[in-house]
Amino acid sequence: MELQSRPLLRFVPFVILQHVLLACLIAIRMQRRARIVAFLSYFCVLVPVFLFTTGDIHRNHSTGCMVTGQIFTAFHLLCLSDPLNDFRHEREEISPSKMPYLRRVYWALCVICSPRGVGWNYQVANVPSRSNDAKWTFVRLKLLSALRWFLLIDFAQSLQRSRPLLPGGEMDVLIVAMHGCIQRFITIALIDMQYALCAAAFVALGISEPKDWPDLYGQWSDACTVRRFWGRAYHQMIRQYTTSIGKLVCHLFRLQPGSWMSSRTQLYAGFAVSGLMHSGGDLMVSPSLLGASFPFYFSQAFAISFEDAVISAARRSKLVMRCPQTLLRCVGYAWVLTWTVISAPLYLTWTVRAGISNENRVSFSLLSFVVSAFENS
């Protein structure tokens, strides 16, 4: 279906609806079978959104990812866990199961909006330390962080425009790799810029506290392997449901928890779920693009398996013990950079096929405005 022929999605009402509806379902005390029926009903409510458009291809992709992620979140919360009985927040005074229904709905909304579980008993691994800054100091720092990311995005987009990809023509491998790396960086920057703005707004309005908003990303210096890049440095916003679904797959295959096969299965299942989530973005752009994003994410599991094998062989040969740690980390960084360049073109697949690989993700360019003003002065 062409973008122009689709009905326009009312984005804000839809986002509110999908969250409130899921919260209402979680807040109902249901048996397991009823929760499965509730999930299937919720799934049927969300799926038609793929027939709509936001009016912008990039926004369509991010919305499709969000909706698919919400479906996985609902599967985790309704079918694989029992939030009312299992989840607790550090500031809770009474059990959620004893709260009035409307208060349980609000409590469930807090669960849905806390994918990393900060302050909850289900907090995922490798979340950065929580902030101890005063309220307005925190707000100022987050606004400055958002501004820095905006300027870096602006510069990255300017660099991208300087060497555009030519649709349908011969494309230099290095140019494609450069565009892939830049697009990857822009995505990372956009996510953190939006997170910083949300954190500043919610804390400024008194809705939450600075300690509820730890940094989205970990230390980039930890990214000396592909595994550590995804597991420590990158955001952990989808780790909750990728982990629970990975464990479900292991349970279905009756794999021993903690075994090598269980670890491998969870690795591949987790990245498969990530690939499927991003494929939802492909679908919302165009049905013909469904699955275009999947190879990039699923290939990360192969890269991790490869590096695990190399590290294991190096340890058995005692090579690791004979090399300085600084050298090993430098080799690790070089490997991660090399893999990023190799896999970067896969990240571009859907944008190239959609013909928007050269379009800006942020429409206003401060850099272009300053350059234009300088030239006209």
TrEMBL record:
Membrane topology annotation: Multi-pass membrane protein
PANTHER family the record matches: LONG-CHAIN-ALCOHOL O-FATTY-ACYLTRANSFERASE 3-RELATED, WAX SYNTHASE DOMAIN-CONTAINING PROTEIN
InterPro entries (UniProt xref): Wax_synthase (IPR044851), Wax_synthase_dom (IPR032805)
Family per similarity comment: Belongs to the wax synthase family.
Entry's transmembrane regions: 12-29, 36-55, 185-207, 294-314, 326-348
Keywords per UniProt: Membrane, Transferase, Transmembrane, Transmembrane helix
Wax synthase domain mapped to chain residues: 213-288
Subcellular location: Membrane
GO molecular function, one term: O-acyltransferase activity
Natural source organism: Laetiporus sulphureus 93-53
PROSITE patterns on file: PROKAR_LIPOPROTEIN (PS51257)
Any single GO BP term: lipid metabolic process
Protein name as catalogued: Wax synthase domain-containing protein
